[in-house]
Amino acid sequence: MSNLVFDRRGSLPGPGLHAILIGVSGYDHLQFESMAALGASAPAKKFRSIAGKLRQLSGPAKSASDLAKLLVSDSDIWGVKLKTCRLLLSPALDGSDSEGLLVDPFASAVKASFENVAQALAEWRDDCNDDPDGAALFYFSGHGIQRSKGDAVMLLSDFLHGPAILSQAFDINGLYNGMARSDPLFPNLPLQQTYFVDACRADFEIFKKYALPNSAPIFDAQLFGQDDRVAPIYFASTPGHVTLALPGEGTHFGRDLLKCLAGAGGDKILDDSGEEYWAVT
């Protein structure tokens, strides 16, 4: 099944926006005892103490879907026309954020497992590399942790399924560094990139028992060379803090992001000469 819910690579000439949006509310192994009737299953015995401490979510999948709907319905909203949009969703196991989620054209959204996300990210980077004057957009909403300040690890729907704690997780720094231009494999990646990490960056006591557990690698990255990107990363939380959501309505950060894109992030100003311009507010 394709992770593309919008594809104009063959019909849109010139540069375009390539978006990948990931929303994880439902986790296969979290709260496996109380959520077994809804599909949760027990992880390996060594991980069961962790699985009992992190809860299921409601909101992230809806926030990712709502952003996809906005991008598709208003393909000029980013300042460059939308060319591709990839959407990976794992709705809440109890169905609390599923209303209107998987309707056309989003019915093709695939589960946000590590395997599916890794494949989608690789295909997203390939499309970006074919569009050097375009733009790249990344959005993740779901569980997150930090191993140190400045870190952000994103947990995917099959978290705790692999041989190591973070086998089904990836960190923003590895993704970000792998999206910088590099010879000879990816010399044409767009210089305009934007990243949104709508996840907690809290210190979970259970992870402190391990010496900086490694997350799974997503991209190879060159260690040296120039990086001329304009590529901000926007975090929903500061280091050591959590994020919140309204059950069934999306995350607070996701809702505010949609409001900003709808115009709340700036005011149209008229100067003395009658010229209109936007001021960020």
Question: What's the structural blueprint in terms of helices and strands?
Answer:
Elements: E1 4-7, E2 17-24, H1 48-51, H2 60-73, E3 82-90, H3 114-129, E4 135-142, E5 144-145, E6 153-155, E7 169-171, H4 172-178, E8 192-199, E9 233-235, E10 245-246, E11 250-251, H5 252-264, E12 266-270, E13 276-280
Parallel strand pairs: 2-3, 2-4, 4-8, 8-9
Antiparallel strand pairs: 1-3, 5-6, 6-7, 10-11, 12-13
Helix pairs in contact: 2-5
Describe this protein's structure.
The protein is α/β, with parallel strands linked by helices and 281 residues long. Helices cover 19% and strands 22% of the residues. It has helices at 48-51, 60-73, 114-129, 172-178, 252-264, and strands spanning 4-7, 17-24, 82-90, 135-142, 144-145, 153-155, 169-171, 192-199, 233-235, 245-246, 250-251, 266-270, 276-280. The strands form four sheets. It has a six-stranded mixed β-sheet with strand order 1-3-2-4-8-9, sandwiched between helices. It has a three-stranded antiparallel β-sheet with strand order 5-6-7. A two-stranded antiparallel sheet has the order 10-11. Strand 5 and strand 6 (153-155) form a beta hairpin. The radius of gyration is 19 Å and the shape is globular. The termini are far apart. The mean pLDDT is 89.
